[in-house]
Amino acid sequence: MTAFGCEQLEFGYENLPSILTGVSLSAEAGELVAITGPSGRGKSTLLYLLGLMLSPRAGRVLVKGEPVSGLPDAQRSALRARLLGFVFQDAALDQTRTVIDNITEVCLYSDLDRQTARERGLALIEQLGVQVPAERRPGQISGGQAQRIALCRALVHDPMVLLADEPTGNLDDASADGVIDAMRRHSQTGRAVIVVTHDPRLERACDRSVPL
Fold first, then answer.
1. pTM attached to this predicted model
2. DSSP-based helix, strand, coil % in the chain, nearest 5
3. What is the dihedral of CA 126, 130, 131, 137, to 10 degrees?
4. Closest by CA position to 121, among listed 139, 137, 96, 102
5. Count helices and strands in the chain by DSSP H and E runs
6. Which mean pLDDT values do the consecutive 10-residue runs of the chain (212 residues) have?
7. Which domains does the chain have, with CATH numbers?
């Protein structure tokens, strides 16, 4: 059974024409999948649909064969907090909170206790070579560091599915390699990873690519 995917998704904003039509893809447990294609094709929008942050006009998102995109908002939010990790293209860190608090905020919405989240978060910071004090605030770190902190946040609760939007877009080569390795390790634990990318190195590291 496919771990995660979508069937015949269609999406458009309000009364505007659809920007995605008939999109289907899947990611098996243990698979790293790239969504590729020119800018303006709706790749990031598709990731938001897969992350249950937008609702499709038609079609459905599936988790272990079960449709979930039509669930009520509260159920979709609970499912997202429990099973999904999401890396936004702009990191989307809370500027008022410390680095470690940004990472561990997931424990507010999942079953992960704060101490375990902190221990995992500190380990991920070291693993990804972020090299910033855990109590520093996002305004005091670089964009590349912020992007890696966002990946730590997405991974800290060991999500069944990791979704990442251009996760290496703002990184130097060494940092990008660390991010690619972290996502590959996550998939190798039996998780599904789906990334939107224009980065040829990341695309090559994936098991397969899905052009949009």
1. 0.95
2. 40, 20, 40
3. -120
4. 102
5. 7, 9
6. 89 93 96 95 96 96 94 93 94 94 87 90 93 92 93 96 94 92 96 97 96 94
7. 4-211 (3.40.50.300)
